[in-house]
Amino acid sequence: MPIAALLGLALVGLVGTSWFLNRDALQRAVEAQIRAVTGLELVVNGPIDVSVFPGSYVSFHNVGLKGADTAGPALQVDVLTANLRLLPLLLRRFEIADVMMLRPHIRVVRDAAGDSNWTPFVETIAKAMTPGAENQVSFSEIRIQDGELNYEDGTNTILREAASGGLPDVTIQGLNRQAILVEKGIAKSLEPYIAKEPDFAKDGYHKAMLDLGTSNGAVYGLPFAISLPVSYYNMDMMAKAGITKADQLPKTWDDVVGLCGKLQSAGVKTPLFWTWNITGNWFLQTLMWSQGDSLMKNGRFNLASNAGLTALETMKKIFRGCNMPNYSLADAQKSFAAGQIAMYFTSTSELGAIERSKGEWKLVTHEFPGIDAAGPKGLPAGGNAALLVTTSTDAKKVEASWKWLKFITSGEGAADVARTTGYMPPNKAANELILSDFYKQNPNKETAVRQLPLLREWQPYPGANGLAVTQVIYDGIESIVVGRANDMPALQRELQEEVTELLAKK
User: Among 15, 98, 80, which residue's Cα sits nearest to residue 41?
Assistant: First the structure.
């Protein structure tokens, strides 16, 4: 039979299969194969999409994968797509070729012995992924797209491990996530250890930085890697709008929006991305501090202020005036590095990754724009602090943990972090002595250091609902990004009421 005829029959077979496919049987078959490969049970909470022609796949939305003995899912996936092998499908057999996971969220919990909830699955996955006669089921690959681990995940993990008795000795947490660990007695005061260090110089830290780890007058966290919001510019693209020198770069958000129009007229499809989705609240605090105000004031949510309304209106102006797409953080960074975005406003912490991955175009970082020409009156410190959370009674182990904290936050240890990332060292000696020549050779990494006088607290939200507050703010800002919210005074009232209610709950 001619090859063309065979292909024609195969095509007819695929089309016919799409009409008579038993979707329940397909789901059960895919679930069984994923269970065989991973040892995890598939829990589908959303719709299921099935395609046979032209592509053969089944997609599960809002999926949890959990072990039989675990309370919650070890892995939560927005969309899990199993691509099917074509020839078995013609014979009404369902065999997975490979699996793609879109936006997976991995939950890792360790017990007191150091074993995690993933321990039983690792060996199973490794064995199944290796083709062999003994394996009835094997996948060629498992691909992950846009997976994220955020500050909130890290905090939740420590809270769970504290409850289960499986705490590590040291944890690194977002600066705005320290407070809850201090409140719950998980983080240890570092004052006794500092007092025993005759050569430990608190003066080596910028006071504003050291204050970031201070609660009730005691140091609990040593700032590890500090970031500030900065501006990133693709100068090759900026030239299309007549910007060729650093002193021509925008000083205000009105300047930025005006440049967006010029860039779009010059054929630039995506003139800007503003990483509003860094934890959902960092850049809202940025716009508040820029005006000399704060999002939390005297223990109360302060979005109902004039500064709060200005912050929301500024976001709307930027998002709508620049036709900003709703990218994930990972996609935005990749697009900017690929030379597809002209202006990128984000944390200085991304600088190292962008420099390593960008194409052959000129990158310039610059100070963050302000609401007015005077520039920002303050900017929130981002980044992390290292905390001692050990429950060990082994004095040598505790001492080793303390020595490690010291090393990574002072002198050469902190300088090494700055050399390989965009983060700033929390120590004056690292910035002013060790890295003085480094900044001359790497001016893009000095931008954040020039903004140090503007450094302000990345404020936490007190009480048990701090993470829920962050999610409410995230959802509110997202509604501006995607165009659901147009009335900023109404959104201001809604967010103020929701957050105030959450903060009132104990």
Answer: 80
